[in-house]
Amino acid sequence: MSAAAGQLALLDASQAQPDWRVRESARARRLTVRVFPGGRVEIVVPVGTRSRTVQQFVSHHRRWIDRKIQELRHLVSEPVDSLPQTVFFQAIDRRLTVEYRDAPGPFRVSETADGILVSGELLRLPLLRHTLHRWLLHTAHAQLVPWLGSVADRHGLEFARVQVRRQRTRWGSCSRSGTISINACLMFQPADVVRYLFVHELAHTVHLNHSRRFWRLVEHLEPGWQTLDRELARGWQHVPHWAIG
């Protein structure tokens, strides 16, 4: 496995693939695997996980991983380092054109009549992508936070605060203190799927588990949630590569 600096080589040669990555996370409590659009694979492991444990995990899930790679490989036709020419926020049914202007000074995103203009030194691709990531976070915060609040008000539920992040493995979470974290990439999901995710996390403010009582509450708040849950599980196919990388 070709690993980036500081990344553990936790897969043996028979399992290694050039587009696979193993990432240690201090927040991880168990091993998880995610296959992204384009077929990139990321395995997240708790700190201190042994190589043999990762190899056994991959062997156990290899059939599923290979199937997901085949499903998602064709979804990214542009090179990994390419920049988007359009952005479609399915959650709010809004499509934006993206223009780029080569300019010195700070990197900026400004609104245009039908989209956005990204200004900066066009040869500095990593900074352009970082600028787009910051814009995505800002836009998601402005759209998703009030939306979450309205869903909470509708069902008479409360949360302490909300934070929006660009997560790679979770669509949302709720802490014991009542803080709800939501993924900025929800902007690329259908509106009813986003609403279900909000209901799911708000239900955790009542039951901080996945008990029967939790699922009964989810069913009460969002009848037919199972279909939406399956759609959310496949949701990464809607997320463009630039928003993940």
Summarize the structure.
This protein is of the alpha/beta class and 245 residues long. 36% of the residues lie in helices and 21% in strands.
Give an overview in words.
- This protein is α/β, with parallel strands linked by helices.
- It has two domains: 20-75, no CATH class; 86-244, 2-Layer Sandwich (Zincin-like), CATH 3.30.2010.
- Helix content is 36%, strand content 21%.
- It is built from six helices and ten strands; from the N terminus they run E-E-E-H-E-E-E-E-H-E-E-E-H-H-H-H.
- It has a four-stranded mixed β-sheet with strand order 4-5-7-6, with helices on one face. It has a three-stranded mixed β-sheet with strand order 1-3-2.
- The longest helix is centred in the middle third of the chain and has 31 residues, at 125-155.
Keywords summarizing the entry:
245 residues; Zincin-like; 2 domains; three-stranded mixed β-sheet; 10 strands; 21% strand
Number of helices: 6
Mean of residue pLDDT values = 87
Strand residues, percent: 15-25%
Order of helices and strands: EEEHEEEEHEEEHHHH
Strand tally is: 10
C-alpha-based Rg, rounded: 19 Å
Q: State the CATH topology of the largest domain.
A: Zincin-like
Q: pLDDT below 50 for ≥5 consecutive residues: which ranges?
A: 1-8
* First-to-last CA distance: 19 Å
Shape descriptor reads globular
SSE class: alpha/beta
CATH superfamily of the largest domain: Metalloproteases ("zincins"), catalytic domain
CATH architecture of the largest domain, please?
Answer: 2-Layer Sandwich
The CATH C-level name of the largest domain is Alpha Beta
Order of strands, main sheet, comes to 4-5-7-6
Q: Largest beta sheet, briefly?
A: 4 strands, mixed
